[in-house]
Amino acid sequence: MSSSYLWVSACCATTLVSGVAHAEEKIRLEPVVVTAEQVREVGTNTVPSNQEATAIIKRTPGGVAVVDSEQFENTYTLNFEDTLALIPGVFAQKRFGEEVRLSIRGSGLSRGFHLRGLTLLQDGIPFNLADGSADFQEADSLTFQRLEVYKGANALQYGGTSLGGAINMVTKTGKSQLGDQLRMEVGSDSTYRFNFQSGQAFDDSDYFLSLTATASEGFRQHDDQGNFKFNGNFGTMISDTIENRFYFSGNIIEQELPGTLSLQAALNNPEMADLNSIRQDWHRDIRSVRLANKTTFQVGDDDQLDVGAFINIKDLFHPITSFVGVIDQESVDYGVFMQSSGEYQFADYRTIYRFGLTAHLGEIDAKVFQNINGSRGNLTANADQESSNFVLYGENSWYVLPQLALVTGGQFIGSERQVTDFVTPAESDRKTYTAFNPNLGVLYEPTEHLQLFANISRSVEVPTFSELTQNGTAGFTPVGMQKAWTAEIGTRGETERFAWDVSLYRAWIDGEMLQFTMAPGIPASTFNANNTIHQGLEFALVMDVAESVFASGDALVWRNAYTYSDYYFEGDQQYGDNQIPGQPHHFYQTELRYDHLGGWFASVDWEIASAADVDFSNTLKTPGYGIVGLNAGYDFNEQVKLFVDARNLLDKKYVSTYSTIVNAAGNTSVFYPGEGRSLFAGLQIKF
Predict the structure, then answer these.
(1) DSSP state letters, 293-325
(2) What digits encode the pLDDT tens for the residues 445-504?
(3) What is the DSSP letter of 164?
(4) SS3 10
(5) Distance of alpha carbon 166 from alpha carbon 64, whole angstroms
């Protein structure tokens, strides 16, 4: 352990003795960021503007993206499937409501519920529970200023340690979203959503407030949802060089769960629910409060120090199958973070550095009751679950030539999981995990609008309580850490008419955590595979097809995002070289959009997915599909905007996603049907 600390310290220390002068980053890739008209390019010390964030993220020698809110603000955006469309390498498919299967480069691929393998953050503050698992329902896309996507070990900036990387949801401020705004949306399946936002800026402070209310009957039976979400932040300049910002959010969420279907039912009667979900009233209700504080110190002209603390309190009431029962949990997550970053000249060489520390702890009062028609019956499980995670990281970009940077970095992690079981004391256990993850990359910028990059990095993933507390063993289930080495090469850039972002990667994984559904009503079983490979191609292309087509100043733009995914066992004793199920090999999203200077736009989008393996034995596949949508909007003036969003126009019946299984001989009711034809409309008024 001491040698690992020394390695990280040495990596950070190199920032004090090396570098080469280099011109400012200026690339503006449309697949990465588009400046929103409504979100002004005004940043603060604690929350940089979208342009500033893009310049920072473009120093990364690997796959990254910044998604401006303009990309999705003129559509009905309920979840990450909507907000992360057209980002290659990101696979986000809806299960129900705001619940999606979210995976980057195959992270947590076989998990059929919640999230594993990705670090979610809101405003740079951990959104996951301390054990690494996460829900999606508490995020409100209407409050986002942007989404920052860090694929794989490129998430070092936020201490990300997992195979998939990190997604940072950045909230608007009173300076980026100035004024009051009312948004009203209505659509298929009796869907209604209302949002009010207010942003104000003063001489030395600003605030942003948002309240969202959503109600929908859902596409399927037993798919109703209703929620209230509040988000706010207040920032103030304590001095010319110090800014402090408080964050607060609160949620009341009620979501019915329709469950999974057989493949035949999903394709022929997609609106039906699992009958048990109705009889047993499956749902997931959340009450949560999140508080955080961040202070940014500007040190000189080029250096910055961020420090902060956070606490997240959540109450989960979750009736599920009769085998599981009613999951009733109260959790408290809290922690502190620090990051120092900047650059300086030394002997005419430029160096950019950052290093930091994140401490994230959590306690869960985890009870389970019998499910009596959605209500609590007898107590069947009662345990305290405690997690702690400490991540120390450092990174140094040394410009050995004005156009060439050598990027070195590393992170040390220490995690602990402890369960005190009050019903079955023999299942109490405690385990500590430590790891060191180095990375090495190069970033070459031969011209102002072209970058070439390559990197190799190590990542680890600690099991969550879902993996450690499977039934049938005394103490923790023997599921170990997942470890991986990933190599990546790529390029991004732009010309007068084209912009592109391409990454090619290969990950060698030892102990990949894979899951399969054993039988109806029985939760998935997790195991560590021996050696597996994840490799793929991520390709984004934006083309300005034409200008002044029908009128002076109009534009026709074509956006494309293609993901090729090849995940397989490597000489496994049971599965040989079979494909790892969970995601189609080919996934393509495209949009052709026309913008008129008269204030209106229209676009057509097309999503295509190839067939995908469902089981580890590769005996069952989902059929491929293609769905078409239309989106249009009109700005009456600067204050009033209207949009319509039509989806799956041909009413295609398809499988959106599914849980993985061992083979087709057992339970095969694991499919979530895609939603049929739907139409949404929204009106936005600024005051």
Answers:
(1) EEEEEEETTTEEEEEEEEEEEEEEEEE--TTT-
(2) 999 899 999 999 999 999 999 889 887 667 898 899 999 999 999 999 999 999 999 999
(3) S
(4) helix
(5) 10
DSSP state letters, 514-583? EEE--BTTBPPEEEE-SEEEEEEEEEEEEEEEEESSSSTT-EEEEEEEEEEEEEEESSBTTTBTPBPPSS
What would the pLDDT profile of 139-162 be if each residue is shown by its tens digit?
999 999 999 999 987 887 776 667
| Chain CA centroid to CA 83, Å | 10
- Residue 133 reports pLDDT greater than 90: no
* Residues paired with 519 in a beta bridge: 522
- Could you tell me if 40 and 178 are in contact, meaning their C-beta atoms sit under 8 angstroms apart? yes
Residue with tokens 């300086």: 344
- CA dist., res. 687 & res. 679, Å (int): 27
pLDDT tens figures, 86-103: 999 999 999 998 899 999
Residues 6+ apart with CB under 8 A from 493: 27, 29, 447, 449, 450, 451, 499, 500
Question: How many CB atoms lie under 10 A from the CB of residue 403?
Answer: 17
**Residue reference for tokens 């993933």:** 461
Give the whole-angstrom CA distance, residue 36 versus residue 53.
14
* Full-model pTM: 0.91
CA nearest to 512, candidates 644, 382, 659, 616? 616
Give strand pairing partners of 158. Answer: none
For residue range 525-542, what is the model confidence (pLDDT) as tens digits?
A: 888 999 999 999 999 999
